[in-house]
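agent> Task received from the user: take the single chain below, predict its 3D structure, and emit structure tokens. No templates, no multimer pairing.
agent> Plan: (1) validate residues, (2) run structure prediction, (3) serialize to tokens, (4) report one or two observations.
agent> Step 1 OK, no nonstandard residues flagged.
tool_call: predict_structure(input=
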Amino acid sequence: MRVRTAVTSLANNLTIHVFNAAANAEGWLIVRFLTFKITKMKTINLKRSLWLAAILLTSLFAGAQTKTASKKAYESESDNMYYRIYKEGGHKIVHVKTEIDDKVYRIEMTDEKLTSLYVSGDKVPESDWSKYNDVINKIREEMKEQEKRDAEQAIRNQEQAKRNAEQAIRNQEQAKRNAEQVLRNQDQAKRNAEQVMRNQDQEKMNAEQAVRNQEQAKRNAEQAVRNQEQEKRNAEQAVRNQEQAKRNEEQARTNEQMMKEITDALVSDKIIPDRSGLHEMKINEFGMSVNGARQPEDVFKKYQAIYKKYNAYFRGSFNYSRDGIIKEN
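)
tool_result: status=success, residues=329
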């Protein structure tokens, strides 16, 4: 059983909405939609309306709990009229309660035939029913109008229920998409956090590399200075090497001339038979030897003078061998 009740009040206006839905033993869905509207009523009428609403609410709760095997009920209320229609024993039963000119009328009909009439709580004998034909006919007309309005409202309610069901499906689908999006957002947040960590690590490594680059740049600058200094020294050495090569060339020409003169003198002095006969010669402060043979003092003095002519400073000893190597010690 489900029962919904809404009460709206503004100044002397009071509206009570009651919605009830329940299933009977046969599986029929019993729907009751009641609206009590009270506008600028006296206190007694307000009390009567609240009393009527209490009776109807009690009837709704009680009816929802009762299982009747052959009964299908329909209830409606508009302004100050309440009626209930149901089937029982194959007959159509109608209960109506309404207020007209400050009097509460309650009628019961079976298959459209009046079976009882109450006016303000007093039962009216069947013999007096004709006195109330106008009221009864008015009640019947209002019931027909209300049934028409209820039928139209039922169609609107069904259409709204269909729209609500479709919206509920869309809401479920949206909720599913929202849940999936939440998961994607969580995954993305996790990836973002991991990326932040990687970025921080990379920034740290970049900072360390920047320090290393600065240190390397400093070393490179220092090395560039050393390279420039070395290039300067190399250039100076190249100049010296050129000068030394020039001196070596000059010395080689001098030695060649000196050995030619010494060799010619040795041949002339018959110390060696010819120019190819000189294999070794030594001159030092103690004397002179040619091919291992020591020469006399006068020969030593002669050749020492020739040597000094080409070498201003005698360094103590002079050695020559057949391979053309001249060594000075």
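agent> Step 4: summary for the user.
Confidence is low (pLDDT under 50) at residues 1-14, 16-44, 60-71.
agent> Done.
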